[in-house]
Amino acid sequence: MPVGRPVVVSLVAADVIHTFWAPNLHGKKDMIPGRRATIEFRADRAGTYRGQCAEFCGYEHALMAFLVVADPPAEYDAWAARQREAATSPSDEPEARGQQLFMTAACARCHAIAGTPATGRLGPDLTHLASRRTIAAGTLANDRDALARWIADPRALKPAAMMPPSHLAPGDLQALVTYLGTLK
Length: 184
Ligand code: HEC
Ligand SMILES: [Cu+2]
Hints:
By secondary structure, the chain is of the alpha+beta class. It has helices at residues 73-84, 93-104, 107-110, 144-152, 154-157, 170-181; strands at residues 7-11, 18-20, 29-31, 37-41, 47-52, 65-70, 134-135, 140-141. A hairpin with a 4-residue loop joins strand 7 and strand 8. Helix 2 crosses helix 6 and helix 4 crosses helix 6.
């Protein structure tokens, strides 16, 4: 978000009641399935603010965090413009192989990558995955090692995750991680 400008966040819950809360920025806002809620707030100082679901919502409640990054408006505008662009195309053989694996393994059924045939909606949009600091709702750092562990067996890290384990040969897993790393 841009520093000094109010932002409005639109909130929906797919399954159970969650509560959106970044304690240093705003009060708690309940998210009730079937109802769209909005919350307006402003950051007066640049920085990274941690948020956390504040309503017990199931097994993964403690693993449901997010970061709000407040940047000076010009930096924010540049970031927002990049986020609206489609994904970059693979530029070498390993990246192309990773992309092909993504499209042919189950990944593309649950995840979208803008500018590719992947349009799944059950999981997070991955068009700009590599620009995020964390994955799996603040649970893991966004680096090669964590991505590989997550893709191989998400439920070893988050037992109730809705993403199934994948059975990929080690070389294929590495190609996939290489491709995901290009999604800046
Ligand atoms: C059945 C649907 C499903 C399939 C198939 C699936 N995923 Fe996921 N994926 C999810 C869901 C749901 C999440 C969010 C999990 C969470 O945070 O608890 C997720 C999270 C992720 C994340 C972390 C994204 C973030 O921003 O937190 C990555 C990376 C990812 N999946 C990659 C893959 C890859 C690569 C494949 C194929 C090998 C794949 N997924 C297959 C549903 C799926
Ligand atoms: Cu929750």
